[in-house]
Amino acid sequence: MLSAGHDGSSGGRGPSSATEPPVDAREELDALCPASGWRSKNVLVALHGRRAPGAVEAGRVIAGALGAPLHGLFVCPEPIEASEVPARVGVDPEALHGMVLDVETSEDLPGALAAAIACRSTAFVVVASEPEELKDERLGIGRLAARALESAVCGVVITGPDRPAQLRRILLPLDGNPSTAASIAPVGELARKLGAELDIVMIGGASPRGEDAEDAPPVSTPAPSEPGSMVAPLYVDQPQHEWPAFAEEFLDRFLSTIGRCPHDVSTRFFLGTGEPAAEILRFAAQLASDLLVLVWHGELDGRHGAVFRDVLCRAPCPVMVLRR
C-alpha cells in the first residue's frame, strides 16, 4: 500500500492556520459550490425496520452538517397517527425530535419511497438495508434500499447494523476517470461541513523498483477508458519523489478541478494493488472509515458493476452512493 497525505502544509490540501480561508471566503465558497442550496432541500430518512434508528442517526448527522431540514417517511398499510410512529419504529420519541414526519398509507413500501423521492427536493435519502427482508437479486441488498438506489437521482446512504455516531473519516475510491470525479462534489462539500478527513483510494497501481521489486505481486493498470483519464504507473524508480508528485497531480485534477472539492478539506491519497472490491473493503476496514462513498453509473454489467455490487454488499460501514 502506498500513500501520500495532504495536511494543509505549503503546496498541499487541507486545513491549517496558514491556509484556512476566512469566514467571508467560506461563504463565497458556499455560494459558488454546486452543492450549495441544500438549505432548500431535505435529507429524507426511510423509517422502516429494526435498523431504522441507525438510519435516523445518520440522517441527523448529514442534515445537521448541511443545515438541511430532516424529513422522515413512515409507510403503513393502515392509517395511523404520527404520534404512533416512534413505537412502531422502536425508537424513543426524542430520537425523532425536530424531524418533519410524513406518514403514508400504502402496502407498497418501496413504491411509496420512490414516489416520495420523486416529488421532493431531496439532497440525500437514508435507508437501512434490513437483514430479514427479501434481498434484491441484482444488488444483493434489501429491496427497499435497492429501490431507493434505482429510483433516486440524489445521493443515497445505505446503513447497516452499526450506528454512525460521527462521520470523521470518509473513504472515496476513484478510478481515474473524469466522469467519476464529476459526480463527487456533494461528498467534498459534506466533508468540509463535517470537518471530516477524506481518504482517496485508487486501485490498480504500481510496484516500486528496488530490492523488494521481485517479491511484489503482479499488477496490471487498465488502459484509460475515456479521454482525460489518469492511471498509475506500473513502476516508479524513485518512490520518495515520484509518488508525492503523482498524488498531487491526481488530487489536483480529479478532486479539486473536476470534483470541485473545497481546498480546506484534509485529504490522504492511497494506492492499492489487487482485486478492486477486496482492496476497497480492506482500506475501509484498515482506515476505520465511518462512511464509504461509491459512484455508480446505474448498471451492474461489466467490471464496474461487479465491483460496485460486491462492495455495497460487504461494506463494514454505511455506504453513500452518488449517481454518475
Automatic annotation (TrEMBL):
Residues 168-323 form the UspA domain. SUPFAM superfamilies: Adenine nucleotide alpha hydrolases-like. It holds the Pfam family Usp. It comes from the Bacteria. Signal peptide: none annotated. Gene3D superfamilies: 3.40.50.12370. InterPro entries: UspA (IPR006016). Residues 1-24, 206-227 are annotated as: Disordered. This is Universal stress family protein. It comes from Sorangium cellulosum (Polyangium cellulosum).
